[in-house]
Specification:
alpha/beta, Rossmann fold, Arc Repressor Mutant, subunit A, 2 domains, six-stranded parallel sheet, 10 helices, 49% helix, elongated
Length: 215
């Protein structure tokens, strides 16, 4: 009996990336691209209607970024495997998504063979993290904390909210912790992005990790 191909969903806000990866998958007989999405919200809608085995997803996207989407997929679609495909190779970012349950992490400079190998590996129940990323993680975080200066203009409450966001807490959970309303948390989040010049949650999480707010 012929084995069913691995059903892959591609999620990236750049059409040229989606088209390029789809072309790479077309040459692999044991997998098929069942759809593409340009942000996490679209991806979650696809998952509600299509059978998907592996999601290959960017980290930085509008509407809903890769971190929020990964959390939702692991909560609502536990059988779906997730590989993050990103430009970011910072150990803190990789560690964050590993801890959130990502099944793999590749940098966008990886080759076709590693991409296909990663998809097959995670579909088979393994985890796959690009070799260079693992090496960086094993070297330790000797520079961790050097970015504390980036937080010098933030209020104590803003730092507390930033730490909560980096831990993956919702606005309500942060509000419960700090005894403030979810709406106030959202206001702090908006102010954080303005002060730090960051435009999405993934960027806030990266800065918080680099600054040593969370482990």
């Amino acid at each position: 009996m012929k084995q069913q191909p691995i059903r892959v969903l591609l999620v990236d806000d750049h059409r040229i990336i989606l088209d390029g990866i789809r072309g790479l998958l077309d040459g692999a007989a044991d997998m098929t691209c069942v759809g593409t999405s340009e942000n996490g919200a679209e991806a979650l809608e696809v998952l509600r209607h299509l059978g998907v085995d592996v999601v290959l997803m960017d980290l930085d996207m509008p509407v809903m970024d890769g971190i929020d989407t990964l959390e939702r997929i692991k909560r609502d679609h536990a059988a779906v495997r997730c590989i993050m495909l990103s430009m970011h190779d910072e150990p803190a970012v990789v560690r964050r998504v590993m801890d959130m349950g990502a099944d793999g992490y590749l940098v966008k400079n990886c080759g076709r063979e590693e991409l296909l190998f990663a998809i097959r590996s995670v579909h088979g129940g393994q985890r796959h993290f690009q070799g260079s990323l693992v090496s960086a993680l094993l070297e330790g975080q000797q520079h961790k904390g050097s970015e504390h200066q980036l937080l010098k203009d933030l209020s104590e409450r803003e730092v507390e909210v930033l730490a909560g966001l980096a831990e993956g807490l919702s606005n309500k959970e942060i509000g419960d912790r700090l005894f403030i309303s979810p709406r106030t948390v959202d206001t702090h989040r908006t102010n954080l992005m303005k002060k730090l010049g960051i435009h999405n949650l993934a960027g806030l999480v990266r800065l918080a990790l680099k600054a040593g707010l969370v482990k």
